[in-house]
Amino acid sequence: MDFTLDDEQEALRDAVRGLLGKAYDSSETRREVTKQDPGFGEDTWQRLAEMGVLGLPFAESDGGMGAGPVEVSIVAEEVGRVLAPEPFIETVVLAGGIVAAAGTDEQRADVLGRVAEGSLILAAALKEIGEPVTASQSGDGWTLSGSKEPVLHGERADAFVVSAKTDAGTGLFLVEGDASGLTRTGYRTHDGGRAAHVAFDGTSATPLGDVSADQAGVLETAVASAQVAYCHEAVGAMTVALNTTVEYLKTRKQFGVPLKTFQALTFRAADMYVSMELVRSVASWATLVLTDEPTRALEAASRAKLQVSTSGRHIGQEAIQLHGGIGMTAEYSVGHYTSRLTAIDHWLGGGADHLKRLASSVGDHEVVEPLPE
Amino acid sequence: MRLHLTEEDAAFREEMREFFTTQVPQHIRDTVAARRELSKEQMVESMQVLNAAGLAVPGWPVEWGGKDWTPLQRHIWHEELQLANVPQPLAFNAGMIGPVIAAFGSQEMKERFLPKTANLDIWWSQGFSEPDAGSDLASLRCAAVRDGEEYVVNGQKTWTTLGQYGDWIFTLVRTNPEAEKKQAGISMLLIDMTDPGVTVRPIELIDGSVEVNEVFFEDVRVPAENLVGEENKGWTYAKFLLGNERVGVAPVGATKRMLAQAKEHADLDDVLVASRIAELENELMALELTALRVVAHSADGKPHPASSVLKLKGSELQQEVTELIVDLAGPMSLASGAGDGSDVPDWARVATPGYLNFRKASIYGGSNEVQRQIIAGTILGL
Question: Ranges for the Acyl-CoA dehydrogenase/oxidase C-terminal domain (chain A) (predicted)?
Answer without folding.
Answer: 226-345
